[in-house]
Structure to design on (223 residues):
């Protein structure tokens, strides 16, 4: 068990896996799951940049395919951004829905198409998802069930944390696994983790000290 800063609950820690050097060549070219991935970024939007949490989760998924088996699994990514995680999940065999804000979707679609069109993989579906908005209408639980909800670096200094948590909670039905990697920058990040732990059964899978990223896995607490 591990104790975090004041106000953050105690949760289970699994540290069987130690991260290696980052698997990318420069800011645009990455190598995961046996494939080179080229990502187009944009400095005009936070969502069009590859953040450390995405690199951490991609490395973990690549290195732990038996523990986190994505083959033929239904995966939805919250805040997919550049699409790097969705691309890697697709290469690993998942049915992926990549979601983000409307202004991010064109660049997201470009990256997904560019990196999957010549591979024998399922191209991720791109969907608009504004946290906390129209969830029942756009993602009805009766027809939208997922094996994994993934999110990377969705927690930072912004005002949509309540909506983000509501979205995570809504999308994670019983049996759904949450994979969340985040760089911890502010005290509010730990406060958000506190709230997540009150709703999900959370385990820390890995820690990336060089980037201050922590990777968590969890399932919704059943009433």
């Amino acid at each position: 068990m591990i104790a975090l800063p004041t106000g953050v609950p105690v949760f289970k820690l699994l540290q069987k896996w130690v991260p290696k050097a980052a698997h990318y060549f420069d800011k645009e070219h990455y190598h995961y799951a046996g494939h080179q991935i080229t990502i187009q970024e944009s400095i005009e939007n936070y969502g069009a940049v590859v953040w450390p949490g995405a690199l951490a989760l991609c490395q973990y998924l690549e290195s732990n395919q038996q523990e986190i088996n994505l083959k033929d699994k239904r995966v939805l990514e919250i805040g997919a951004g550049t699409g790097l995680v969705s691309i890697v999940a697709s290469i690993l065999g998942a049915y992926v829905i990549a979601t983000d804000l409307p202004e991010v979707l064109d660049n997201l679609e470009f990256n997904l198409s560019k990196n999957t069109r010549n591979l024998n993989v399922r191209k991720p579906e791109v969907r608009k998802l504004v946290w906390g908005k129209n969830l029942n209408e756009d993602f009805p639980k009766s027809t939208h069930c997922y094996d994994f909800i993934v999110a990377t670096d969705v927690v930072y200094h912004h005002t949509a944390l309540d909506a983000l948590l509501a979205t995570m909670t809504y999308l994670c039905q019983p049996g759904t696994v949450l994979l969340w990697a985040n760089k911890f920058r502010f005290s509010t990040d730990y406060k958000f983790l506190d709230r997540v732990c009150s709703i999900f059964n959370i385990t820390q899978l890995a820690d990336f000290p060089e980037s201050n990223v922590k990777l968590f896995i969890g399932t919704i607490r059943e009433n």
User: Anything to note?
Assistant: Helices lie at 52-63, 84-91, 105-116, 135-138, 161-171, 187-199. Residues 1-10, 21-26 have pLDDT under 50 and may be disordered. The longest helix spans residues 187-199. The beta strands are 12-13, 29-32, 35-38, 74-78, 95-100, 125-128, 148-152, 177-183, 200-208, 213-220.
